[in-house]
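Researcher: Quick test of sequence recovery. Tokens follow.
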């Protein structure tokens, strides 16, 4: 891949295969090249034909060498690079992670759009869902915990690993007392469950969603409607779990049946429960963390 000079300072030449268009690697108007130069100001980066020459501290040059190799690996899988993926790749390499292990882990492709983890923590979360029966994804809004869980549910359904998907969240603003709200059941619950519908629309042909809901293949319902049921051969997601009481959380977890996977997502810093009510998500974390076949994944603002 490259030829290095000395230990402290390095002159390095990276040869790019002739079959690889440089514009795909370096970006339109060299936008990815400029990102690299800005991220590694102590290294001189010179492009000549299909060669990239580096001159600067050996450690920084080695990271750029690895970065180019990772970018080439992603291009070989058919994944187009972006400003975001290059920036994330630089951060991962600085922390000792191979970006291609994270950014090429495709979950779903629909209508030309591919859904995949974008950060190391998101990849760990997706891997935990593959390995455990019950997984808790905890972190702030925008970290992809619900979106990736829904993608894994759709993937499992398409692979016939489960027979149905059950999506639920607590209607905390109504205190779960939906019978007191005006309108039909659909009109009552729609505002609380709309984010789950939106995620599904990104992953499944929107025209087929009503049919899947009518047949019971996909069920979207408030947490209150889970009582007294056993969910077999299902991929079950509880969203906004920070707004469950300890009793509700226990009720939900005991719905788990044979051949099912459960993913519980929430942000313990955004609890909207009435004063004095302890979040079931916080309680269950203290009890179940460390148990076999139960995974806890904590995402941070860096995963947004």
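Model:
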């Amino acid at each position: 891949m490259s030829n290095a000079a000395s230990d402290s300072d390095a002159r390095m030449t990276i040869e790019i295969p002739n079959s690889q268009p440089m514009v795909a690697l370096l970006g339109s108007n060299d936008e990815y090249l400029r990102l690299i130069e800005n991220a590694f100001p102590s290294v001189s980066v010179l492009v000549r034909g299909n060669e990239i020459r580096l001159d600067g501290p050996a450690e920084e040059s080695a990271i750029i060498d690895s970065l180019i190799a990772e970018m080439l690996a992603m291009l070989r899988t058919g994944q187009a690079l972006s400003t975001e993926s290059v920036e994330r790749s630089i951060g991962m390499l600085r922390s000792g992670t191979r970006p291609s292990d994270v950014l090429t882990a495709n979950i779903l492709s629909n209508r030309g759009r591919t859904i995949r983890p974008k950060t190391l923590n998101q990849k760990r979360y997706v891997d935990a869902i593959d390995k455990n029966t019950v997984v808790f994804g905890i972190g702030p809004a925008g970290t992809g915990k619900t979106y990736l869980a829904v993608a894994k549910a759709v993937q499992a359904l398409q692979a016939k690993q489960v027979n149905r998907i059950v999506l639920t969240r607590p209607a905390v603003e109504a205190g779960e007392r939906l019978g007191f709200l005006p309108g039909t059941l659909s009109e009552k619950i729609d505002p609380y469950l709309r984010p789950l519908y939106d995620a599904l629309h990104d992953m499944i042909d929107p025209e087929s969603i009503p049919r899947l809901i009518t047949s019971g293949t996909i069920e979207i319902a408030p947490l209150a409607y889970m009582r007294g049921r056993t969910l077999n051969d299902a991929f079950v997601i509880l969203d906004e779990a920070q707004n469950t009481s300890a009793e509700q959380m226990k009720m939900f977890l005991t719905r788990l049946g044979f051949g099912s996977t459960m993913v519980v997502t929430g942000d313990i810093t955004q609890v909207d429960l009435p004063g004095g009510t302890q979040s079931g998500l916080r309680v269950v974390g203290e009890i179940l963390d460390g148990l076999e076949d139960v995974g806890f994944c904590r995402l941070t603002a860096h995963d947004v």
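Residues 58-76 form the longest helix (19 residues).
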